[in-house]
Amino acid sequence: MFFEQENISSTEYAGTREGADMMKVTETIAAISTAMSDSGIGIVRISGPDAFEIADRIYKGKKTLSSQPSHTVHYGWIKDGENTIDEVLVMLMRGPHSYTGEDTVEIDCHGGVFVVRKILETVLKNGARAAEPGEFTKRAFLNGRMDLSQAEAVIDVIHSKNEYALKNSVSQLKGSVQRKISAMREEILYHTAYIESALDDPEHISLDGYGDILVEKVEELLKELKKLIDTADNGRMMQEGIRTVIVGKPNAGKSSLLNALVGEERAIVTEIEGTTRDILEEHIQLNGVSLNIMDTAGIRKTEDVVEKIGVDRAKNQAEDADLIIFVVDSSRNLDENDFEIMEMIQDKNVIVLLNKSDLETKVTKEMIQEHLDKPMIEISAKEEEGIYELEQTVKEMFFRGEIAFNDEVYITNVRQKEALEQAFTSLKQVKRSIEDGMPEDFYTIDLMDAYEALGSITGETIGEDLVNEIFSKFCMGK
């Protein structure tokens, strides 16, 4: 009997969005959706079944709002009884065609802190409840306007620190992660249902040779999962910035480099060795790439107790770094401090900067290559020469020169990475069971574990507590 994929009902196997069942959305909520500072405009958002009625109670214009069509803007005044609060524009959006999927009203008023708060107080007095952090986006999730990966992308857009992070977050907001995950879940569900049906009806559905078919599909899924998991480090660096540590012996020019990158005198620069004794951290952008960059104490053997603490901290920071910038003073011969550093960073992502190229050169690239095979750039931190080449090298090392946002999905969320790793482990176990000749019902156990793990990324198999935890991290009014 031929088993058709389109005839499989997913109801029996699909995870339930427990949060949607447990958290009934019945109250009308309101919050300020713009920053609490004096500005040109402020927005108070109202969402829920009574949004239009509440707006009618406080809005005075030519027409009542509840009688107006969706996605229209109206000019008028917000009043608290007889007291006029502000001149406003009011935007109307009827559910389900709104951000939350509910009737939504947005009041655009003048952006003074007092006036925005006064309008919110008036809205709350007339029947709304103050929204919790992230509650608007939570309602969008619960009402099926977006899946959980898209909801998490909302906060990533807000927190984006660079062009790459923003583009990746917008891609996820459009559903790039959801599409990948849903496609894999459909494959897993199909094979699970086929095996279960064959076990229930062995006379009509045969499993002869099905292990070979399944192992081939599992291997394909494992490759897809591995690719997504491998993007997580780049995704984290896109979102948070590349953890970068500048190392080198004293007076190599580390602090001068930091000042050149930051564009101002942040680190003290003197001719005295050991001036930098602690970690100095700055967030900078190199051509759209974010670096969390740390200047450290010069690494050398020292009897100075305070300097020694700084040296130890420098070594510890280098151990945890995504990228190490090794600054070599090319005007001085290599010494034991340089050799110690090169030994310490052999297995790290390293860019070697041959600094002080404006002076007579005593250290060449060939000399360094005898001990350390890493990308090398000749620079002058003092003259700010070679910085562009450093930018391009960082991009090439971490993003292969350019990020293909239209084609590739980058995982930026730790929770999503953990779920992918759980699914990967479960599918590895499926492959192992097939290779060991285990009964077919063993396959379905691990297939469903993978299915559930992937479902937690999109929110289809997730509980109320985790939903609340995720959205509690959102800002108020979003």
TrEMBL record:
An annotated Gene Ontology molecular function: identical protein binding
A Pfam family matched in the record: MnmE_helical
Recorded family membership: Belongs to the TRAFAC class TrmE-Era-EngA-EngB-Septin-like GTPase superfamily. TrmE GTPase family.
Location, primary (coarse class): cytoplasm
Binding site for K(+): N251, T270, I272, T275
Protein's organism: Sellimonas catena
Entry-linked Gene3D superfamilies: P-loop containing nucleotide triphosphate hydrolases (3.40.50.300), Probable tRNA modification gtpase trme, domain 1 (3.30.1360.120), tRNA modification GTPase MnmE domain 2 (1.20.120.430)
Domain TrmE-type G per the UniProt entry, residue ranges: 241-399
InterPro entries reported for this sequence: G_TrmE, GTP-bd, GTP-bd_TrmE_N, GTPase_MnmE, MnmE_dom2, MnmE_helical, P-loop_NTPase, Small_GTP-bd
UniProt xrefs under PROSITE patterns: G_TRME
Name of the featured protein: tRNA modification GTPase MnmE
Main EC class the enzyme belongs to: hydrolase
GO BP terms, alphabetized: tRNA methylation; tRNA wobble uridine modification
Alphabetic keyword roster: Cytoplasm, GTP-binding, Hydrolase, Magnesium, Metal-binding, Nucleotide-binding, Potassium, tRNA processing
Binding site for (6S)-5-formyl-5,6,7,8-tetrahydrofolate: R45, E106, R145, K478
